[in-house]
Amino acid sequence: MKRNSRFKLFIVLISLTFLCGCWNIKEINHRTTPLYIGVSKENDDEYIVTMYVPVTQSGESESIIATKKGDTLSNIFRQLRTDSDSALDYSHVQLIVIQEKLAENEEEMTKLIRLSMAVEQLPSQALVVITDDDIKKMFSNIDKLLGTHGTYVQEFFYKEEWAPEVSSTHIWELYRSLYSYTEDINVPIITIDKDTGIGFKGTAIFKKGKLTGRVNPKENLLLNLFHHDNAKGEIESLGSSGVIVLNSSLYMTPSMKKNEPLVSCDLKIKIDVIERNDGVTDKQIQGEFKELIEKQFYKIFTQTQENKADVFGFGQYFRNQLSYQELKKWRDEYYPKLKVNFQVHVSMK
Amino acid sequence: MGNLVQEIKSKFANHDDFFIHEERFNHTAIFLMGYKTLINFTKSKLYVRQMAELSASVDELFINLSDQLDVKAEQLISAIIEGKLVVISEKNRNAIMETVPQTLSRSIEEPKNENPLQGPFDAFGEDVDMNIGLLRKRLNTDRLYHCSYQVGELEKRRISILYIKGKTPSALIEKIIRKLKQIETDIESLEDLNKHFGYRKFIPVSHLFVTEIPIQAVQSLKKSRVVLFLDNYPSALVFPHLFWDMFVTENDRNFPFLLSFMVRSLRVIGALATLILPGLYVALTSVNPDLLRIDLALFVAESREGIPLTPLIETLTMLVLVDLTIEAIVRLPKSIGSTITMVGGIILGQAMVEAKLVSQLLVIVIAAMVIAASTIVGVQNSLYIRSLKYFILFAASIFGILGLFTGLLFICILLASLTTFDIPYMAFRFPEKGDSQ
């Protein structure tokens, strides 16, 4: 009896051999993997989803740009699956491009963010950007210039010290900001660039899915500093000279006095002069540079304070000083009262 | 001719290589008898004659020739079978003589299955006494103990046990000796002996680690392990077999520490690569392609374009073909072996890719795996690691990366559960200290 059951187990295991591979598994060459997805809206009711899919055919890389229209997003995604030539696999999506008109609508944007998190296959680390241009044209421009270059988006958004002003936002960060009491988020804005594919045009500030303001790339660098990035490599031209930032570090000390939050920020920057007019001294350059940065900061800060969008994430530093109930009121009560003592300390090489 | 001679003669009537030679000494006939195939007859005869010249009487001759005098007929017969010379006189005096044997074993040669780099090049042979001599030469201590046992039913085989007194736990030696004494069947192969140390039917790990190299055996002895010799088997059997034998050879110690560390790490990587690579290929191409970076995914997808087989069948085909090639090379004479390798390499590598039967990437994976598998120490170890990769391959083809790591985990559990006389297989060294003496 025991021998018999062992034999049966053996038969079952043998049949497993034939099962695996032709089960509910799709091989890598039988999947359609879109790289970029564009979402836009036309005539108020109709959504348009554009997909950029690289196709490999005997050594040559080609691509398909597919567009579908429909009244709801989930309908379109279903339709795309139905019409796709092989299994549609969203797991390689790197970039979600949202039309600016759609992004300005708070309700639509919130719905879109929730949907993209809900689609299980869609990787939550895909990047989100906003554009004013035609998405289909953008994709075909990228395709024309670069072909199926799988890592293009990665390379564009993670240039680090070669372009410290570029920032990137993942879907999960955007989703988190919908529920965060103390931090808002900025989403990159891109345009078509005829020579390099896409161009970086600063960021849009989102407060819980609502677009409240924009910052240009120079100002975006300041925001990046507050998110633990380094300004190394940034070239700044002052009226009389040009400097390059060698290193930077930011120190923050939050304090709370009589329900009035105060943050003192010390930004230490080390610069090197790369060009200067005759007769300009180091001290003048230092002073000019300090003034420029401080002016930039207070400009964005007052703007965000008016909009009650804490894009710098100052609220994060008060999480241990406020109660849970008070934190809920951070944006409306505390943030407008926040005083920031922003000091720039410039040193020369 | 005495009764005894007649009796022995009739006993060996059907043995053509049995001889009886008659000599006369002091007017007495003495008979020399034995196997021509086991005894060097000419030299033995010469020796007896020289002894006869030195002796005054027949009795004195017998005393000069041997210590074993006037024994029973059965003992004489078994002595003849063992290859000794029996001398019987007319007056039924007899003696068993140790004589010059025929040289039936090869001399000390270079190791055939192992390749010590910049190490001593002598290897064990078929003759047990020679093997023990090789050990004694390297280990000059009176604490090297040696005991021999004859086991078997049809034919008696000699098993020698060597250990260092005071290092090897005496409880372990007692257990081994008790097991050996219980053996009643014939020991024909290593597996026959292996069975007596604990039955492992479905587990590919042996209780004995086979080595041809004397230093390896000496170091094992020093690390308080036991070395067994089976007569007519050209290797030392180190007991118990531990996991690290797969990665560590004694010869590594001839290199500086960093180099030996590197060599050993390479072997560990080799073992892991052998286990993981085929499974990883199947998991990444069929179950979890989302784990690949997009450019790598596109490259893999492109290399698999137009291939009719599923990744599992494709990988299995290649694995079996490669294992067949290795087996074929072992079977074939050395002169043909290299040809087969070349033909196999060309067919597997080039033709199959060109025929779009397997993907190029798979050929790279398989080649890397075969090379990796060859780094493991010991033929048996290499074989068992190669056999375990199939298990991981199937697990990976069903559950992807998850299956791959679960498979690895199961193999770890299996290996960790193995024990030899309560010594875990995964032990780095002996946990017990021997009796200090």
Note down, in words, how this protein is organized.
The complex is a heterodimer of chains A (349) and B (437). Chain A is α/β, with parallel strands linked by helices and 349 residues long. Chain A is 34% helix and 34% strand. In chain A, helix 4 (106-118) packs across helix 7 (171-179). Chain B is built from 14 helices and twelve strands. Chain B is elongated, with a radius of gyration of 29 Å. Chain B is 49% helix and 14% strand. Chain B has three domains: 3-97, no CATH class; 128-240, no CATH class; 255-420, no CATH class. The two termini of chain B are 57 Å apart. In chain B, helix 2 (41-54) packs across helix 3, helix 11 (311-331) packs antiparallel against helix 12 (334-354) and helix 11 crosses helix 13 (360-373). In chain B, strand 6 and strand 7 form a beta hairpin. The A-B interface holds A 16-17, 19-23, 25-29, 31, 33, 35, 54, 56-59, 61, 89, 91-92, 94, 121, 123, 148-151 and B 282, 284-287, 289-290, 292-295, 297-298, 300-302, 304-307, 310-313, 394, 397-398.
**Helix content, binned percent of chain B:** 40-55%
Ranges of chain B with pLDDT <50 over ≥5 residues? none
Number of strands of chain B: 12
Which oligomeric state applies? heterodimer
Distance between the termini of chain A: 85 Å
- Relative strand content of chain A: 25-35%
User: Which strand order does the major sheet of chain A show?
Assistant: 4-3-2-6-7-8-9-10
The helix count of chain A comes to 11
Strand order of the largest sheet of chain B: 1-2-4-5-3
Overall radius of gyration of chain B? 29 Å
Series of secondary-structure elements of chain A, N-terminal to C-terminal: HEEEEHEEHHEHHHEEEHEEEHHHE
Straight-line N-to-C gap of chain B: 57 Å
Q: Can you tell me the residue ranges of chain A where pLDDT is under 50 for at least 5 consecutive residues?
A: none
Structural class of chain B: alpha+beta
Rounded average pLDDT of chain A: 83
**SSE run of chain B:** HEEHHEHEEHEEHHEHEEHHHHHHEE
Biggest sheet details of chain B: 5 strands, antiparallel
Strand content of chain B: 5-15%
Mean pLDDT reading of chain B: 83
Q: For the largest interface in this structure, which chains are involved and how many residues does each contribute? A: A-B, 31 and 27 residues
